[in-house]
Design brief:
By secondary structure, this protein is mainly α. Helix content is 73%, strand content 3%. Strands 2-1-3 form a three-stranded mixed sheet. It is globular, with a radius of gyration of 21 Å.
Length: 316
C-alpha cells in the first residue's frame, strides 16, 4: 500500500483501562479526583510564584513553568477519558487523535527538558553561588525556556507529520485511554519501517541530551557538596536539591520502567495501566514534592490568601 493517509479513516475507538461497566464509575471518580488535585496543586504553585516578588528567581520561575506544563500534560488526556466514561462513547476522530499525539509528546517532552534545565540551575546555585545571579540572569532563563518549547514543538511536529504519512483501515481500536503514539503506529496498514527508524533516532537524541545534562549537573553538585567541610553546610546545600532530585528520579524511573516493561511483555493493557503513573500521578505529586518542605512556597501561599491559619497543616 502506498504511503499516505487513507481517505476512509475517520475515527479511532479508545478502549480505555477496562471494559467492565461496573468499574467505570470507580475509575471516573478516581481519575476526576486526581485530575482536580493535579490542576489545583499546580495552579497554586503558579499563583504563589507569580504573586510573590521574593520568588521571582530562576529556580521558582522554572518551577512555575513546570507546573503549567503539568497542567497541560494531564489536560491532554484525562478530560477526554472522563468524557468517554460519562457518555459511554469511546470514539475519537482522526484529527483529534493526531492533535492528542502532538500535545502529549510536546508537554511530556517539556517536562523532561525543564527538569534538565532545573538541574543546571541547581548546579550553578550550589557550585558557583557568588556568580549565580549573573550566570542565571533573566535573559538566559527566558532563552532556556524558549529553546525548550521550540525543540519540543519541532519534535512533536516531526512525529505528527510521520503519522500523517501512514495509512489506516477505518474504525480501529486503540487498547489505551488516549492516542499513544506507539499504539497508533502499530495499527497502521502501511509500511512503518521509516517511521519507526525516525521515531527511535529522534527519541534517542531527545532522551540522551536531557539525561546527560542531569547526570553531569548532579555529578558536579555531589562533588561540590562533598568538599564542604561542616556537616550542616552539606545538609543545607543538599536540601535545596532534594525536591528536584525526587521529581527527576520519579519521572525518569517511571517512564523508563513503563517502556521497558511494555517492550518486554508486549501487553497493551498493562502498558495502559502503567502509563497512568507518569500521565496522572507524577503531575499530581509534583506540587507536593516542591511545596511541603519548601518554606518559601508555603509563605507565598499564606501571603497570597492573606489567611495565615488556612495553611497551617503544611507546617505539620
Amino acid at each position: 500500500m502506498e504511503s499516505g493517509n487513507d481517505t476512509q479513516i475517520s475515527k479511532f475507538l479508545l478502549l480505555g483501562l477496562t471494559e467492565d461497566p461496573k468499574l467505570q464509575p470507580l475509575i471516573f471518580g478516581i481519575f476526576l479526583s486526581m485530575y482536580l488535585i493535579s490542576v489545583f496543586g499546580n495552579l497554586l504553585i503558579i499563583l504563589a510564584v507569580s504573586s510573590d516578588s521574593h520568588l521571582h528567581t530562576p529556580m521558582y520561575c522554572f518551577l512555575s513553568n513546570l507546573s503549567f506544563v503539568d497542567i497541560c500534560f494531564t489536560s491532554t488526556t484525562i478530560p477526554k477519558m472522563l468524557w468517554d466514561i460519562q457518555t459511554q462513547c469511546k470514539v475519537i476522530t482522526y484529527e483529534g487523535c493526531l492533535t492528542q499525539i502532538y500535545f502529549y509528546i510536546l508537554f511530556g517532552g517539556l517536562d523532561d527538558l525543564l527538569l534538565s534545565v532545573m538541574a543546571y540551575d541547581r548546579f550553578v546555585a550550589i557550585c558557583h553561588p557568588l556568580h549565580y545571579m549573573s550566570a542565571m540572569n533573566p535573559g538566559l532563563y527566558r532563552l532556556l525556556v524558549l529553546l525548550s518549547w521550540i525543540m519540543m514543538a519541532m519534535y512533536s511536529l516531526l512525529h505528527s507529520l510521520m503519522v500523517l504519512r501512514l495509512s489506516f483501515c477505518p474504525d480501529l481500536e486503540i487498547p489505551h485511554f488516549f492516542c499513544e503514539l506507539n499504539q497508533v503506529v502499530q495499527l497502521a496498514s502501511s509500511d512503518t519501517f521509516l517511521h519507526n527508524l525516525v521515531m527511535c533516532f529522534a527519541a534517542l537524541l531527545m532522551s540522551i541530551g536531557p539525561f546527560s545534562g542531569i547526570l553531569y549537573s548532579y555529578s558536579k553538585i555531589f562533588a561540590c557538596i562533598h568538599g564542604i567541610s561542616p556537616a550542616q553546610g552539606k545538609y543545607k546545600a543538599f536540601s535545596t536539591c532534594v525536591p528536584h532530585l525526587s521529581a527527576v528520579l520519579l519521572f525518569c524511573c517511571t517512564v523508563l520502567g513503563v517502556y521497558v516493561s511494555s517492550s518486554a511483555t508486549h501487553n497493551s493493557h498493562s502498558s495502559a495501566i502503567a502509563s497512568v503513573m507518569y500521565t496522572v500521578i507524577i503531575p499530581m505529586l509534583n506540587p507536593f514534592i516542591y511545596s511541603l518542605r519548601n518554606k518559601d512556597i508555603k509563605s507565598a501561599l499564606r501571603r497570597f490568601y492573606l489567611m495565615p491559619g488556612s495553611l497551617c497543616f503544611l507546617d505539620k
